[in-house]
Design goal:
The chain is of the alpha+beta class. It is built from two helices and eight strands; from the N terminus they run βββαβββαββ. The termini are far apart.
Length: 129
């Protein structure tokens, strides 16, 4: 680890280290699950409900009720997953304010997206919720 007052960074990741998950703030849990399950093929691994904000700002700068749903291709212990964070009462976020996109090579997802009526750009980019 390299430490100073401005940052902490791993100079050399330890053997066995891996990325665990990304957090995505979503405005509609049902539409997001329909997309990630029906198009991408992820499955819900677990779901948790919270009555108030997280001290570590797990759900962003929001103090109200929220939920997190972990979705992935396999168990969290051995697979990278997505955490879908839904803040009740927040129906949308400013586009471009956070993560821009997730890129996957998944030909079956393109077929599923077309069948379900999702917008396809440049013949290979699916516009999700």
């Amino acid at each position: 680890l390299i430490e100073n007052s401005n940052y902490i960074a791993m100079a050399h990741p330890t053997e066995g280290s891996r990325s665990l998950h990304w957090v995505l703030k979503i405005g509609n849990l049902k539409k997001s699950l329909d997309f990630f399950e029906g198009v991408i093929g992820l499955r819900v691994l677990r779901h948790e409900e919270f009555s108030s904000g997280c001290e570590a700002t797990c759900n962003g700068p929001y103090g109200g009720a929220w939920s997190k749903t972990m979705v992935g291709f396999g168990p969290e212990i051995s697979n990278f997953v997505l955490e879908l964070t839904y803040n009740y009462g927040i129906n949308e976020y400013e586009f471009g304010n956070d993560l821009q996109y997730i890129a996957l090579h998944h030909p079956i997802a393109l077929v599923r997206a077309k069948a379900l009526g999702y917008t396809i750009v440049n013949d290979n980019i699916i516009i999700g919720p």
